Amino acid sequence: MNIFKKFFIFLSILGVVSCDPNSKSDDNQTLALLALAMQQPVNLNFEALVGGQSVTFNDTNLTVDGKTVKFKDFRYYISEVKLIRADGSTADVTLDNEFNWQNSGVALVDFETIKTSDTRNKVTGSVLSGNYSGIQFTVGVPDVLNHLDRTTASAPLNIGSMTWAWSSGYKHANIEFSINNDAGYTQFHLGSTTCNAAPNYGCTKKYRASIQLSGEINPSNQKIVLDVDKLLVGYSSAGAVSCMPGTAAPCDTLVQAFGLNISSGAVDSSITQRVFSLK
How far is CA 71 from CA 50, 116, 128, 160, in A? Predict the structure, then answer.
């Protein structure tokens, strides 16, 4: 139900209460219905940090342990956003449709300034009014949208460098970097594998990270950090490295950083994602 329908319900209930001579201003049931009809804006501000500083594409970035990191690309898709109540129940966030950046419940977070000059660090939408103590979201494109023809798909699912092929689908995350001024770059592309071709598109191994963060949530202005230092724990490279799920060491640690099982591609409860946190 979109925000306009809920607003209509709000007005309808308000009219009924106003016209009923037996209604009371402290009618708890009416207040509960009004609360259900109300929505509040959601504005999630994503940050990418190295050594506690915002990632830059104009210079080297220094990690907490003294490594230098340069980036060529830093983009990922966000979908299936939910806010979590104290009792563990969730409320779906309806994402806005915004030109180039959000459509059909999928948002693109884009920090890079090399391939395009535009950047996008926020995800916007609306959610039922209430108090929330956590957030959940998926890094990746939902299965139902993962095999679109990007040449005809609406933005942000029309970007060639964020796709593999129709059968494999999209790159859920695309992070390309070099360490310690190495001439070769690591291309870390997180996406689904073991996929079927037409007409029965689908992938057995999803590699779609489900991130859950606990803490006091300010839906209208909440910061979420991706910590590159924690992404790079245990990772070293020399020369050009193509890191995709299933390519084994040294890439496994990058996949596991998102809480994913390197063999099945599923979210693994025994592996705690280590890259995202609330700020």
Answer: 11, 13, 38, 19
- DSSP H helical segments within 75-123, as ranges? none
Domains contained in the chain, number: 2
Neighbours of 2 (CB within 10 A): 9
pTM, to two decimals: 0.87
Calpha distance 248→252 (Å, rounded): 5
pLDDT digits (tens, 9 = 90+) for 132-191: 999 999 999 999 999 999 999 999 999 999 999 888 999 999 999 999 988 899 999 999
| Domain containing residue 9 | 1-37
β-pairing, 222-227 vs 39-50, is parallel
Same domain for 25 and 108 = no
The reply to whether 60 and 157 lie within a common domain is yes
Considering the domain architecture, whether residues 16 and 53 belong to the same structural domain is answered as no
Q: Quote the strand ranges of the chain, DSSP E.
A: 39-50, 53-54, 61-62, 68-84, 90-92, 94-95, 102-103, 106-110, 122-128, 134-139, 163-165, 169-179, 186-191, 193-196, 202-205, 209-214, 222-227, 241-243, 276-278
- Do 32 and 15 fall within a single domain? yes
Question: Across the chain, how many H-helices and E-strands are there?
Answer: 4, 19
